[in-house]
Description:
Elements: H1 3-6, E1 8-16, E2 19-27, E3 32-37, H2 46-51, H3 53-58, E4 61-66, H4 83-96, E5 102-107, H5 110-120, E6 125-131, H6 137-151, H7 156-166, H8 173-185, H9 196-206, H10 209-212, H11 220-227, H12 236-244, E7 249-254, H13 262-272, E8 277-280, H14 287-290, H15 292-302
Parallel strand pairs: 3-4, 3-5, 5-6, 6-7, 7-8
Antiparallel strand pairs: 1-2, 2-4
Helix pairs in contact: 5-12, 7-8
Amino acid sequence: xxxxxxxxxxxxxxxxxxxxxxxxxxxxxxxxxxxxxxxxxxxxxxxxxxxxxxxxxxxxxxxxxxxxxxxxxxxxxxxxxxxxxxxxxxxxxxxxxxxxxxxxxxxxxxxxxxxxxxxxxxxxxxxxxxxxxxxxxxxxxxxxxxxxxxxxxxxxxxxxxxxxxxxxxxxxxxxxxxxxxxxxxxxxxxxxxxxxxxxxxxxxxxxxxxxxxxxxxxxxxxxxxxxxxxxxxxxxxxxxxxxxxxxxxxxxxxxxxxxxxxxxxxxxxxxxxxxxxxxxxxxxxxxxxxxxxxxxxxxxxxxx
Length: 304
């Protein structure tokens, strides 16, 4: 029977650990299970879900989308926004869908969640895919600030902002926020030359119901830094351990994702390995939209 006829999706409000967890599945549950882990804290899966989830399912994956507890569509005023909570919710998803193993596809901050989860529960993860994922937070912050100093010589307004941020507590929500605000204000997250296809994807998303539910919990970063001790970490030692245990790591990044230095990209390529690494041209942080066809093609190639 045609796979498209077998494909299905449904939305369920999953009662997990005393709260409602938004979760949606795409594709045939008999295919390889793949869980998308979004960025944040204060992020959600709406952009990935609204642009890419079904297309990834069409390639032969059982795609599971969810918003972490206290973030996005998983509202919970009691959420602590910690890694422990994120792990508990992932384990609930595994139990709910009877998953023995799953591929974790992690974007941005989700890379830290997925890496730490895989280190703690290696038996649950068949493969780890880092997609524009964070792995060395302080190096990212340093790169943003140092690169702005170079590119904005003589721009006293921007330089004063940089000098102000450098004096903040590096383990604070304010420091993180100001670093990423500076990056965003200077287009570090934008592809340099938007294509016709990428423009349409972003435009269609902004007109969709997914965009209408693009909920951002502004308190999430504050709670994370208040309640989570591991708030500024480097997970490369964890990734090396995971790889040594036999769990394949794949890494796919945008060549113009300016929050990462060339040294960082080289280091993650070294960990994943040449055959498990891809760098997409004319592509920034949201690579599954910037260069969607290349993104999907690369994942399909890895899993043939």
